[in-house]
Amino acid sequence: MDRPQTPPPTASSSKAAVQLTPEQVKRIEINRLKAKARLRATQEASRDNPTTLRNANNKRPLTVIPANNTSPTTVSVASGSGSGSNKKGSSEQKDDNAPLKRDAKLMGRYLDYDLSKMVDSRGGFLVEDKAGVDEHERKRLLARERERMRQNLDPPVFLDPSMNPKCKECGSISIDHIFKNIFGCLVCNKCKEEFPEKYSLLTKTECKEDYLLTDPELRDQELLPHLLKANPHHATWNNMMLFLRYQVEEFAWKKWGSPEALDAEYERRANEKRKKKSKKFEDGLKELRRKTREGVWQRRKDEEHIHDFGEVERDEGDGAGVQRCRDCGFEIEVEVF
Predict the structure, then answer these.
(1) What is the pTM of this model?
(2) Are 225 and 182 in contact (CB under 8 A)?
(3) What is the spatial distance between Cα 39 and Cα 100, in angstroms, rounded to a whole number?
(4) What does the pLDDT look like over 150-189, one tens digit per residue?
(5) Closest by alpha carbon to 188, among 202, 197, 199?
(6) Helix or strand (DSSP H, E) at 5
(7) Nearest of 269, 178, 188, 187 to residue 225 by alpha carbon
(8) Structure confidence by residue, pLDDT tens digits, 267-290
(9) Contact criterion met (CB below 8 Å) for 334 and 323
């Protein structure tokens, strides 16, 4: 007798195809979709919580169970009679639209920074506004950047030659736009090299020493326009102020009246400076001589000998006595009463 197989063989009469009604087909499809949904939910729950997995003996693996574990031994999940906290936790896990929880320890690490208030330190990193950057240094960098952008702005060239600005020395249209924008001077590069007595640049120190101009006059952009350039000696020092020579000379002639008057004022100031220097030297020499005299007098005073007399040696004849210095032997006569 043959052993029955699983599933058992069907009867010959059931070989004919079973005809299903549309309602049965619909119910079968709905049950299949529900089974797939339950299987997918079970797989996702197993992926999120590895402790729910079972081995071949339908036992939990030997692992450390965390505090937020949803184990059946702690809360009855199959019966549906779990506590309110478990239901709340399961609802939070299933809620995909809930906001993500952020660690309170990390909140102050990356949420306190406002990128709109960051300042580029030009050193490869960003710093907060007014934190690590000097306000004066930041203003100086901004002024230098604006001046550089203003200098590099080239005007357009017109097709009509009469509309283009021309050099006032040679009439060329290839003028220096930096001189035009900063000093309002129409001159080409060739004429700048040919006439250095007019178009060379002077520093602020040269203007103060040679033309006797003051700081307020040199800082006034309307009186004397100047060109700002980075200091070649040190990058963090103040920018250089460069002035056009013929504009400085015109202002100096107007201030002092004529070149001769400027030379006379220069000589007067030079003489006063020499007199002050000579007077200072003489005062120092007098002070040195006074200190030298006092030193010699004090040294002589210290070298003076002070006699140290001993006991009086009495003379029995006339009642007089003699005192003798212990160091040098000097004697004096004294009367003894």
Answers:
(1) 0.42
(2) yes
(3) 26
(4) 766 777 777 787 888 889 889 888 888 888 888 989 999 8
(5) 199
(6) none
(7) 178
(8) 999 999 999 999 999 999 989 888
(9) yes
